[in-house]
């Protein structure tokens, strides 16, 4: 079993990116040495690496072998790299360099030392309101930076948030990021993102905007406070109907009313009824932090 699993993981890694390989990346001084596989998502593989000149720990993200010949995915992958290079914020992962090996594009990022938020919730269950609000504050600040760059994340979820040092939330995986006014690469009506945290307008192929990312933030904050996502279903259509039609169950009684109110405003079905922007959400969370007794600030 373990041999089969090892072979499966090895097959995900394109030729030229095996452990011990050296990669040349624009923006990185000296070659980058691949040290091994960290994990994978639907389309990409993340590898542990280090800068041979600096010795600093790095992460390399590359398309899986099975997708290397897909031009749409390749262009979307490069879009993530270019998008992230425009953003410098402590709550958004930094892309340090971009390269290509054997016609396979890759990007070099900071190595983030900490668990995914999803793993943290799985281990701990529902978080205390002060901790949940601190995590949401960092995410809101990161989203504000993403939106300021005229980008949308479109796939915000606990698996795409790393808790660096166990406390500082960092948004990752802008693989489906898209310019606010961009029309290319996705067909009209195509659903891109993770359904559990997807806004109704996104799930049903409508116009997606910054308010759609705020809905996802509301879903993440709800899960932090309740220990489970706000919506569910036995199949994809049931989930989409649940997102469109049902108001999530109330949060636990221990959640202060003001924080609960913010969560449910973020989860409003009508985008116009959600808070006016990520910056406004961050300011509201900052105002709540004192009453919640939390010392966290959403940063490192």
Concise structural overview:
With 300 residues, the chain is α+β, with helices and mostly antiparallel strands. 37% of the residues lie in helices and 17% in strands. A hairpin with an 8-residue loop joins strand 1 (22-23) and strand 2.
The H-and-E topology, N to C, reads as HEEEEHEEHHEEEEHHHHH
The dominant shape is globular
Number of domains: 2
CATH architecture of the largest domain: Orthogonal Bundle
- In whole angstroms, how far apart are the ends? 40 Å
**CATH class annotation of the largest domain:** Mainly Alpha
Report the helical percentage.
Answer: 25-40%
Q: What is the alpha-carbon Rg in Å?
A: 19 Å
Output mean pLDDT: 84
CATH topology of the largest domain: Transferase(Phosphotransferase), domain 1
Strand order of the largest sheet: 1-2-3-4-6-5
Which assembly state applies to the chains in this document? single chain
Q: How many β-strand runs?
A: 10
């Amino acid at each position: 079993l373990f041999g089969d699993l090892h072979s499966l993981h090895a097959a995900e890694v394109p030729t030229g990116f095996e452990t011990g390989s050296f990669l040349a990346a624009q923006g990185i001084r000296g070659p980058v040495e691949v040290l091994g596989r960290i994990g994978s998502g639907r389309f990409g593989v993340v590898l542990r690496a280090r800068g041979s000149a600096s010795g600093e720990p790095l992460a390399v993200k590359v398309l899986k072998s099975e997708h290397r010949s897909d031009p749409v995915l390749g262009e979307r992958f490069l879009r993530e790299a270019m998008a992230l290079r425009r953003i410098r914020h402590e709550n958004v992962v930094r892309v340090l360099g971009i390269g290509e090996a054997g016609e396979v594009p890759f990007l070099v990022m900071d190595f983030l030392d900490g668990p995914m938020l999803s793993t943290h919730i799985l281990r701990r269950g529902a978080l205390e309101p002060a901790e949940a609000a601190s995590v949401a504050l960092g995410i809101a600040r990161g989203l504000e930076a993403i939106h300021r760059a005229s980008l949308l994340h479109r796939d915000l979820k606990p698996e795409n948030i790393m808790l660096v040092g166990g406390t500082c939330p960092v948004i990752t995986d802008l693989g489906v990021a898209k310019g606010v006014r961009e029309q290319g690469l996705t067909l009209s009506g195509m659903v891109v993102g993770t359904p559990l945290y997807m806004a109704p307008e996104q799930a049903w192929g409508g116009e997606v905007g910054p308010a759609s990312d705020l809905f996802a933030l509301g879903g993440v904050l709800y899960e932090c406070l309740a220990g489970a996502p706000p919506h569910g279903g036995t199949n994809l259509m049931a989930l989409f109907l649940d997102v469109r039609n049902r108001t999530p169950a109330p949060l636990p009684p221990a959640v202060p009313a003001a924080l609960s109110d913010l969560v449910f405003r973020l989860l409003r079905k009508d985008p116009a009824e959600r808070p006016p922007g990520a910056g406004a959400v961050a300011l509201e969370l900052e105002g709540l932090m004192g009453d919640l007794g939390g010392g966290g600030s959403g940063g490192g």
